[in-house]
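3.2 Worked example (two chains)
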Amino acid sequence: MRIAIVGGTFSPPHNGHVALALCARDGLKADRVLIMPNAAPPHKFCGVSKLDRREMTRLAFMDVKKTELDETELFSDGKSYTYETMAKLKALYPNDDLIFVIGGDSLRDFATWRHPDRILKNCRLAVAARRGVDLSDALGKTEKEFGTEIELLDMPFCDVSSTLVRVNCNFGFDNSAYLPRPVDAYIKEKGLYCDFKPMVTKLRALQNRDRFEHTYNVVLAGLEIARKTNLDESEVFVACLLHDCAKNIPCSEWRRYGFDNGENLLPPIVHCGLGVKVAERVFGITDARILDAIRFHTTCRPEMTQLDKLVFVADKVELTRNYPELKENYSLALSDLDAAFLTVLSQTYRLACKKHGAENVDEMTRRAMNYYFCNTKQEK
C-alpha cells in the first residue's frame, strides 16, 4: 500500500494544504493520505491550542477522499522532529511504501534538518513544486547527497499561507477565499488569531488608508521573513505593526505624546522618534527591543539587533513598493535576513545621497554605513 504523509502546523489549514493533499493523492497514486498536524515544531508558530488545530484540520479534510487525520505527532510531548515521527510510522506500517511530501523550500533546507539520513531510512520523499519554480538543482543535490530518488509533483499555484490568514484575522480582513468554508466558520466562531486585533483597531484610527495598507503589508512581509529566524512571532508582529504608528500625526499634536524632537530629527525620520512615544503611551509598549526597532527602522544604527534588521528590511521590501530590485530583495530576505539587510541598507543610503546629498543624510545612517561596510570586526 502507498501511504502519502502530509505534515504541517495547520495553523490554520487552508486551501493550499487541501490542494497539496490532492496533489499527493493523485500524483503519487496513494491509497491513503495521512494528514499529520505537528506537535510543537521547533521552527514554526502555532498560535492556538492543539485541540483547535486538530478540529480545524478535521474540518478542512473531512470531504477529501482517501485522506485521514493522523494524530501520531500532535499530542506528543516536547518538540517534534520528523526523523522520530517517521520511525513511529514505519513501526505502524512496516510493509507499506511511506512517502513524505514536502514543499520546495523544505527540499532546499532538507540537509539541515535533524538526522535527514534517518528520515530516509523509513520513508521516501516527494516534493510538491509550484508550477514555474525550478527545483532541479536542489533535487539533484539532495538525491546525490543522500543516495535517494525523489518524486516530483506538479503543484497548482495557490497564493495563500497560514501567515496570511492569521494576519488577516488580526486586521479584520476576509479569509473566505483562502479557507475551506468550515474552517473559516470555526475561526470566526471561536475568535481565533485575534490577539492583536485591539491594537490594530487603535492603529487604524491614527493612520490614513494608504499608511494602514502599507503597515498591513509590512506585517505580512515581516512574519514571512521571520520564519527563517529565531525571532518571536508576537514581537515581530507588534514591531512591524507599530513601525509607522506616528507617520500621520501632525506636529501640532506632538506635545500630547510627550515629544519635542529634542534629537532634531529631520522631517523624513521624525516619525521614528515620535513613534517610540506613541508606542509607549497609546499601545503600552515597554519592551526596549520593540521600541528600538521602531526608532531605527528608517535610519538604522550600528549593531542592529535581528529585530531591528527585520523591521527595517520588511519596511523596504513589502510587495506594494515599486522599485527595480524589490522582488530580488524580498526573495533574499526570505532566505538570508543578514544579507538582505546589508543589500537594502546600501541601496537606501545611495538613494538618500542622490535625493538629499551625502551631507544631508542622517548622522545615524552614516554611522551605520561606516559600521557595516568599513568595520571588519562587526558582529551580526
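3.2.1 Second chain
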Amino acid sequence: MRNVTRLNNRYDDDKVSDGCSIFGVMDTSGALIPSDVAIRAIDLMRDRDNGLGGGFAAYGLYPDHADEYAFHVMYTSRQGQRDTEEYLAQSFSITKSEAMEVGPTAVANPPTMQRYFASVRRDSLAHLDEAQFVADRTMYVNTSIADSFVFSAGKNLGVFKGVGHPFDIARFFRLERYSGYIWTAHGRFPTNTPGWWGGAHPFSLLDWTVVHNGEISSYGINKRFLEQYGYVCSLQTDTEVIAYALDLLVRRHRIPMETAAKIIAAPFWSDLPLMSEEEGRVLQTLRLTYGGLLMNGPFTVIVARTGEMVGLTDRIRLRPLVVASSGTRLFLSSEESAIRLVCPQLDDVWAPIGGQPVIARLGHVPTSEESLSLSEVPAGAH
C-alpha cells in the first residue's frame, strides 16, 4: 500500500488537527435506546482518539427522578466533597446522595464520583429564575471550590466522561445499565488543551450537552463576549464556549435554534447581497449584535438538550459530519461506517451543507430533502 504520510503531513507536524470522533443518536418517538448503540459506534472510530478523553451523555435515563436535578460531581479530595456538599445544601433539597457505581477498567487514577438528586429550595430561590439559579451555582462550584467539579446538572439526563478511550469510560461507569432516547458520545484527541477529567467531552450546562471535533480559533473573542453575561470560562477547553453561547442565545435570549446556528456559523458577508432583502437585513443585524459569538475555525458539533439533538459544522465544512435516519431514529457521526455498524439498513444518508443545522426533535425526523431545501444556497455563494 502506498505510504501517504508525506502527503498528509509533509512538514512532520506532530499536531493532529482533524482527530476526535463524535456520534449521536436520537429516537424521535421517545423510545429508549440501549447504551451499546453509542458505545459500539464510537469505539469503531478509536483511531480518531488517543485515550486522553472519552465520554457519553444520555437523556431520559432517570425516569424515577425526572423532576429533580441530577448532579454528577467528581472529587479529588474529601475536603472538596465536604465543601461542595455543604454549599449545595444551602440552595438545594437533596433527596438522594450516592456514590456512582463504577467498575474496574484501564482508566487510571479516577476521581471519586458522586451523584445527587436534588430540587431547588424555594426559600433560596425567591424571585430568581430557577435555571439561572442552578447554572450560577454550578459555575461557583467549578470555579471557587477546590478539588470538585460538577460535570452534569440537568433533569433526567446524565454525562459520563473521563480520561481514557470511550470504551474504557463506558466500562468504568458501567453504562450497560442505562438506556436513553438520546445518546451522544465523544472520543478525544486534544490538540491545544490538556487531557483531564473535567475537560473531556461531553461538556454540559443545565440540560445542554456538547460534543465537538475541531478547533475554535475565535475562543478568546467568544470568551470575552460571554463573560459580559456572567459566564466563567475556566475549564481549559474551547468547547465550553459553544455550550455557553447556546445557553445565552436560546435559553436566556429566547432565540430559536435555527437562528442561533446562523449566529455561531454565520454566512459570509459576501453572501448577504445574494439573499432576499429581508433575510439579508436580519442576518446583518444578528451579526452586528452577536458578532462576538461567531465561531471561527474548523469544527463539527453535536448539541443536545431535552427533546432535541442538533448537528452543525463550520461554514466551509472543514470537519466531517454524516447524517442518517432509520424509522424514528436519527444518527449523527464523524463516519458513516459507525452508523452502519449499529444500523445497517438506513432510510436516508447525507452530508449536510456547511453552516446548515440538522435538527431532530421529539416527533420530527429531518430528511436530506428538507435539509437541502432549507439551505437555498444562492448562485455564486461560497
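3.3 Remarks
Residues 1-11, 376-382 have pLDDT under 50 and may be disordered.
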